[in-house]
TrEMBL record:
PANTHER family documented for this protein: 3-HYDROXY-3-METHYLGLUTARYL-COENZYME A REDUCTASE
Keyword Oxidoreductase: yes
InterPro entries linked: HMG_CoA_Rdtase (IPR002202), HMG_CoA_Rdtase_cat_sf (IPR023074), HMG_CoA_Rdtase_CS (IPR023076), HMG_CoA_Rdtase_eu_arc (IPR004554), HMG_CoA_Rdtase_N (IPR023282), HMG_CoA_Rdtase_NAD(P)-bd_sf (IPR009023), HMG_CoA_Rdtase_sub-bd_dom_sf (IPR009029)
Pfam families named in the record: HMG-CoA_red (PF00368)
MF GO annotations: hydroxymethylglutaryl-CoA reductase (NADPH) activity
PROSITE patterns named in the record: HMG_COA_REDUCTASE_1, HMG_COA_REDUCTASE_2, HMG_COA_REDUCTASE_4
Protein family according to the UniProt entry: Belongs to the HMG-CoA reductase family.
Pathway: Metabolic intermediate biosynthesis; (R)-mevalonate biosynthesis; (R)-mevalonate from acetyl-CoA: step 3/3
Recorded catalytic activity of this chain's protein: (R)-mevalonate + 2 NADP(+) + CoA = (3S)-3-hydroxy-3-methylglutaryl-CoA + 2 NADPH + 2 H(+)
Keyword line: NADP, Oxidoreductase
Name of the protein in its database record: 3-hydroxy-3-methylglutaryl coenzyme A reductase
Top-level EC class as recorded in UniProt: oxidoreductase
Length: 402
């Protein structure tokens, strides 16, 4: 080890090149020892992990020195009545926020007692939007017109890059001499960002060649990936999922310790009016909490919590109770690729019965999206109830959190 550390110190060996000379486990150990020496910090816990790193260092991370462990809890069971997920599930939630799992667990009990969450995937399409530079405004219009009249050619080029993805549509947007082409794909059980980026590059080259517009970037931010954006809230990105449950007045009183009218008012004034006044893209209580905890547990890209948090929670007064629903317009999830193959994350997906590819393709990712939406619904119910009953601060005190 000393030889490699000396080479790292004198610059004759780069940190990223260790795997070229050593097996992955040894490369990680040497790199960690080097960083310990450089920073004067011992990292024994970072260096203690159970995941198999052979795959991880090739697909998931560079310059690996170990792993950070996040506590994993479970909430449930929750009854889900979806088109792809139909049954009772224990939700794996990885978080460091005390009281979160307890809160979701309470919501799961309420949803299950009410007979389960109705869940449907309304739309499914991952996007990538290359941006082109046109010569002038007339040329920009010509480029958009070409795209609109050559969808078959675009589909052929796009689908030539993937065995699994299916091209859905191309929508153009013009701003001055900038032309954005928002491409949408059905990426089956993959979350699909790599798939649509590769396809987007080929489509971009086709449009550049045929129209004379210059391809500036494969992503022009009209996608929109990992940033708050109204286009995702309106048109959707990834899975658009809606979950709802009908609660009787007795259930609201028994488990949430409040009444239907108060629940409706809290949701209206907090989630709807409060969010509107703040110009928020998320009209919900804490959807990001459940999305983030599930994403971390199940190997999703945590940065996509940005899109996943743009949820809308509604509470309708109905005869004898309320109907509570959550709408997640932009939920980018997958059960193959990315972090889903890491051992611990794969186990969490297996808990839900959605690990790997589905049969037919795409059914596992859709089932997972339905389960996530049901979990968000449970979290929203619980927090709304706590707020309506003035129990939020007390719950955090009881769990030792300020």
């Amino acid at each position: 080890m000393d030889e490699y550390i000396e080479r790292l110190k004198d610059g004759s060996l780069k940190l990223y090149a260790l795997e070229k000379e050593l097996p992955p486990e040894e490369a990680v150990r040497v790199r960690r020892a080097f960083v310990e020496g450089e920073t004067g910090t011992a990292l024994p816990k970072v260096g203690s992990f159970t995941i198999d790193i052979d795959r991880v260092v090739k697909r998931n991370i560079e310059n690996m020195i170990g792993a950070v462990q996040v506590p994993l809890g479970v909430a449930g069971p929750i009854r889900v009545k979806g088109e792809y997920a139909d049954g009772s599930y224990y939700l794996p939630l990885a978080t460091t926020e005390g009281a979160l799992v307890a809160s979701v667990n309470r919501g799961c009990s309420l949803v299950t007692r009410a007979g389960g969450a109705d869940v449907r995937v309304m739309r499914d399409g991952m996007t990538r939007a290359p941006v082109f530079a046109a010569r002038d405004v007339p040329h920009a219009r010509d480029v958009a017109a070409w795209v609109e009249s050559h969808v078959a050619e675009i589909r052929e080029v796009a689908e030539s890059t993937t065995k699994h993805g299916e091209f859905r549509e191309a929508v153009t947007y013009v701003a001055g001499t900038s032309v954005f082409v928002r491409l949408e794909f059905d990426t089956k059980d993959a979350m699909g960002m790599n798939m649509v980026t590769i396809a987007g590059q080929k489509v971009g080259e086709l449009i550049e060649r045929e129209t004379g517009a210059r391809l500036v970037a494969t992503s022009g931010n009209m996608c929109t990936d990992k940033k708050p954006a109204a286009i995702n809230l309106v048109r959707g990105r990834g899975k658009t999922v809606v979950a709802g449950v009908r609660l009787t007045d007795a259930m609201v009183a028994d488990l949430l310790k409040t009444d239907a009218e108060t629940l409706v008012e809290v949701n209206y004034r907090k989630n709807l009016v409060g969010s509107a006044r703040a110009a928020s893209f998320g009209f919900n209580a804490h959807a990001a909490n459940v999305v983030a905890a599930t994403f971390i547990a199940c190997g999703q890209d945590p940065a996509h919590v940005v899109e996943g948090s743009t949820a809308i929670t509604t509470v309708d007064r109905v005869d004898g109770g309320v109907y509570v629903s959550v709408t997640l317009p932009s939920l980018p999830v997958g059960t193959v690729g990315g972090g889903t193959g890491i051992d611990t994350q794969h186990e969490c997906l297996a808990m839900l019965g959605v690990a790997g590819g589905g049969d037919p393709p795409g059914t596992h990712a859709k089932a997972f999206a339905e389960i996530v939406a049901a979990g968000v619904l449970a979290g929203e119910l619980s927090l709304l109830g706590a707020l309506a009953a003035q129990h939020l601060a007390r719950a955090h005190r009881e769990h030792g959190r300020g």
